[in-house]
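Collaborator request log, item 7. Partner lab (contact: R.S.) asked for a structural prediction of Transcriptional regulator, AraC family to inform their binding assays.
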Amino acid sequence: MLTPLHVANECYDPDIMDLPALALRLDFAQYQAEVPVHSHRKCQLVLALHGAVTCNVAGHLWLVPPNCGVWIPSGVPHSNRATPNARLTYLFVDPDAHPLPHDCCILSISPMIREMTHRLAEFDLPYPPDGHQRRLVQVLLEELGQMPKQSFGLPVSDHPKIAQIVRGLITDPANRSTIGDWADRLAMSERSLTRLFLAETGLTCGRWRQQFHLQHALRELAAGASVQQVSLDLGYSSVTAFITMFKKAVGTSPSRYFADRG
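Returned to partner:
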């Protein structure tokens, strides 16, 4: 009989210790892929060592790409979904410890920050207030505050009709329904639905789908899927058409993108 997998956020409480920062490593082979909506006082940085994770927070879907992390401010409700092969590091930061972003965002992560976060995850807790652990945390947070933001967020909406479209696209990434097709299903005019989608998300339906395809591709490629499989899953007529979309979005091919990020 298989042992039930644990829910990751039920196995720890980052607020239980009065520390400026602490880190935790998670191998999602041991946990359920879905971490349900929750919040905590400490801010959180989600780093992917392997595989991929998508965070749903602050009205956006946030993918954690290679060499980046999702920053989640204090008290913000969020949920995570990881690929089965994901190995993550969570960095929890006291909101009073150091000036850091007040909004959810994607931060570039330098190799030094990544290694210091890994080292922090090895410390016995609680660590002493005046040891080298505290000094490492101080440098880590100062460096983290210098990291630039990246644009990988995808806006979502609670409007029932827009939510239905979004669910349809997420459930079936190869769905090629036009805005006119969706308008017929939702008993709306195409013009009205076009205006509504833009008002609710800030993007046209076509642009939203393209951005979602990019997030889906980054997630699945990071999880080990081939370019051929991802292009098929997304309904592209050929691998070449998929690679063309990817290059337009990020400026390079999928293989080069991941090679450049190790």
